[in-house]
Structures
1.
Amino acid sequence: MPLKALLQRWQWTTLLAIAAFAVLYSLDTGLKAATGFGTVDLQSAQTSADYNQIFSAWIARQHSATAGFSLGFDFLFIFLYVNAFYYSAIVAREAFANKGLARRAANYVAFVPLAGALADSVENALEFSMMIHGANDNLARLAFVATNVKIVCFTVGLVLLVAALAGFFKLRAPKKAETD
């Protein structure tokens, strides 16, 4: 892929992921202000009692609709952030890993956000399933494990994003030969 196209894809996916995050944040803060619990609070739930406490706070139709929409909209956010983080890894690789082991390692690290996206999808599916069909401790534990995997992979993605930001400026800077 040409460098210009890579940088454009990275910029667009990052901006769209930030916009999707802003929508989720807005929905979640409104839900938390109205009920005492937001969808982010599901990430710290470890037992069926924790989930039932949160779900019972959302019993009103408008709150359960907001929570359900947020969980569904999160799937769009997953798609956007995994692409932004993947392109971040590729931009960082192009900027800082010229050849050899560093380049191969950068290729492998680019797939860490994909593992996080899969874990996030499992987490959301389990949470939605418990919201519709009732929570149980086994599903609660599985969702908690998926959340922790997601958080680790998401953190790696954020590090890649910071590296890509530095790499973006390095790649956009004129080459020494061009300035002479």
2.
Amino acid sequence: MGGEFASVPFSVFCFLLWAMNNENEKGGEHDLRQRIVSLIRANEQALKKPITDEEAQKLKAAAGRLDQMLKAAVDADGQVLRSAAARLDQLLEHIATGKDVTYDLKRRRNWQKREDG
């Protein structure tokens, strides 16, 4: 891991972490990783100055935090998908038993509009 970050200054890596924190969820984890890799590679080509041991340690710590943030995002996405699947299962079960589900669907739609608006 140290080799891929060896020529990236700490300020650039901080910018990458900031970009990670401000990433729009629609872009996806893969797109974000690709942008980070391309920024790092561009900086590797532009920079000739070696980094200090202190900078390397800071980068390793920041990379560890970034990995934790990405894992947390994946875990949160999985939880959202499991919750949506459970709601869909319940809805399909109600439909199969002949229960009227229109009220529940309208209520959810109105609730989502309040959240988005």
3.
Amino acid sequence: MKKLDRQVSRKMNYGIKVSRRGFDVINLNKKQPQKTPPNKALPNLLSALALPYLLGAKKQVERYERSASFLVSRPTISTMECMHEASTLFEDLNTVVVYMRKCGKDHRQHRLWEDIRNHIRHAVREEFDKENDSVKNDRAQRLGLDSKLQISIGFDTDAIKVGETMVEIVEVKKYLAWAEGVIAEILGKAKKDGFLKQEKGKSHNKVSS
């Protein structure tokens, strides 16, 4: 088999770089001043890492709504598509939840997003049935799941139902708007304080932590 050239010297004009805590992202040989509190820039790092998944969740909402719009005309295929889009949506939402909590920001929907993501992941995705029964049963009770079912999820154009728990798409959109506001505020301050930088002539976003 012919070995493929990896082109390791290729320069990429778009990307993200986040430095480890205490280092200047523009000049990695230059450490941040000692006067900077160790935990001051941590939200900058966390919000920068959360942003791709926030944007991904917004895109997944659009993809879900498009798939759901065909539920009547092609029910079988569209139901399978909705399953995939919903699963990916809640994976992204759960990642946002993790970073929001680490930034000290909590929301009433966080437990629900986490429960739905874990139900799908441990019921039909790669961690199939790899979970402690007590954890699974507690979650099933919160979601109103029948213990005799492996998974229970329903789809409509404006909502997703897991067990007896209804999630309206408009509520997901409201949550994403809230999280986007949190991230924008943190990154806006980071830019003002010099922790967020953009290289001249390129679209490389760099965050010092």
